[in-house]
Design brief:
Layout (H helix, E strand, L loop, with lengths): L7 E4 L8 H11 L3 E7 L3 E2 L8 H13 L3 E7 L11 H18 L3 E5 L8 H24 L3 E5 L10 H11 L4 E5 H6 L4 H8 L3 E6 L1 E3 L2 E4 L8 H10 L5 E4 L9 H19 L7
Parallel strand pairs: 1-2, 1-11, 2-4, 4-5, 5-6, 6-7, 7-8, 8-11
Antiparallel strand pairs: 2-3, 9-10
Helix pairs in contact: 2-3, 4-5, 5-7
Length: 282
């Protein structure tokens, strides 16, 4: 069954320099019906889980509704688990408050960065991955108990799970119920093709980020890089994928919102074109 263009959502990460209210308004004006909300400290702080209140969560829900949007996923980075001196308690608190926002928004998917900080030497990988997997397993159980799904963003270039093979191994360590958010730019930057990434991770994908990459550069508008989005869409269509799909525009450097807006439109146009291309999913 073909994926309709209306299923392609936006991400507040594209307008991370703006307050959340303004980012949501911009995305609505682009014509998106669904959105991801970025909750990544210092990078996209559209919600501070450590100072959040019920009133704030209700206000966000009202703002989403006023813009005619539905939140498909929260894109979160509550902290790391394998760094020396990692503040695990604060990371758990932030994750818990992110879950509370998801419930307030009626949003099932909470994407979480893999908790692995920077890449580690291969000789240290398993020890580090087991430590991270333990905490992600605990958070996965908590999410499931609240009727949510914790979706680990793997691979993520330059982290503990930098490529699709490490991503698959980390999900195996987390164990039953582990799912992932599949970001096309991180697959490409990690040295695998989209098809190779899907072969390793496909059965565990429950959310998708659409970004382009050229080599290891992930600050590329779709259409300007090397990601064959039509291969992804063919695979998703063949498997009748029902999850969320969000376009993320992440230009390099400091761009004003007015400079980002045409990049969002160019990205949307390229994705619309890719959806019309018929290729074999293999």
């Amino acid at each position: 069954m073909p994926i309709d263009f209306s299923r392609i959502g936006g991400s507040t990460i594209s307008y991370r320099a703006l307050p959340l209210k303004d980012a949501l308004e911009r995305l609505s004006r682009h014509g998106f019906k669904t959105v991801d909300i970025g909750i990544i400290p210092r990078f996209c702080p559209h919600y501070d889980p450590l100072t959040a209140t019920d009133d704030l969560r209700r206000g966000i829900a009202d703002c989403v509704a006023m813009n005619g949007l539905t939140v498909t996923a929260l894109n979160t980075g509550p902290g790391v688990f394998n760094a020396p001196g990692a503040d695990v308690a604060t990371t758990y608190k932030a994750a818990s408050e992110n879950f509370a926002l998801a419930k307030a928004l009626g949003c099932r998917i909470v994407t979480i960065q893999n908790g692995g900080g920077t890449a580690v030497p291969q000789a240290e990988w398993m020890e580090s991955a087991r430590k991270v997997a333990y905490h992600l397993r605990e958070l996965t159980r908590t999410a499931h108990g609240m009727g949510l799904a914790l979706s680990v963003e793997v691979p993520h270039h330059g982290t503990l799970a930098s490529d699709a093979r490490q991503a698959s191994d980390l999900l195996d360590l987390i164990g039953e119920g582990a799912t992932c958010t599949f970001d096309t730019s991180h697959i490409q930057a990690g040295g695998q093709t989209i098809r190779q990434g899907l072969a390793l991770l496909g059965d565990r994908i429950d959310h998708v980020h659409l970004r382009d990459a050229r080599g290891e550069d992930i600050h590329v508008t779709p259409g300007d890089g090397d990601v064959p989005f039509e291969h992804l869409f063919a695979w998703l269509e063949e498997r009748r994928y029902a999850g969320g799909i969000a376009l993320e525009i992440l230009p390099s450097g400091d761009r004003s919102p007015d400079e980002v807006a045409p990049e969002v439109e160019r990205g949307r146009a390229h994705i619309r074109k890719a959806l019309s291309v018929r290729v074999n999913s293999k």
